[in-house]
Amino acid sequence: MQNSLCTRPLINTPHKKPRQGVLTPAQKRANKSKAQKIIFVEHLIRLLKIWRVASEKFR
């Protein structure tokens, strides 16, 4: 029985430019979209570190 959550790949990496080649406009748009999602998550992690949410022990 296959789990419906595992149908998509878990890692979503940007498109890499081939040697001596260029990315298509669609690939560039996809990379930009992925970069926007990545930076959003990185900013959230930064805020967690600033507020020390992840490093403090809860008593």
Verbal overview:
- The protein is an all-alpha fold and 59 residues long.
- Helix content is 44%, strand content 0%.
- It has one helix and no strands.
- The radius of gyration is 18 Å and the shape is elongated.
- It starts with 24 loop residues before the first helix and ends in a 9-residue tail after the last helix.
- The model has no long low-confidence stretch (mean pLDDT 84).
Query: How far is it from the N-terminal to the C-terminal residue, by CA?
Result: 42 Å
What is the radius of gyration computed over CA atoms, rounded to a whole number of angstroms?
18 Å
Structural class by sheet pairing and helices: mainly alpha
Query: What string gives the helices and strands in order?
Result: H
Shape: elongated
Beta fraction: under 5%
Could you estimate the helical fraction of the residues in percent? 40-55%
Regions with little confidence, pLDDT below 50 for 5+ residues: none
Helical stretch tally: 1
Mean pLDDT: 84
Number of strands: 0
* Main beta-sheet strand count, sense and barrel state: none
What is the compact description of this entry?
With 59 residues, the chain is an all-alpha fold. It has one helix at 25-50. The chain has one helix and no strands.
What is the secondary structure topology, with strand pairs?
Blueprint: H1 25-50
Core attributes:
44% helix; 1 helix; 59 residues; mainly alpha
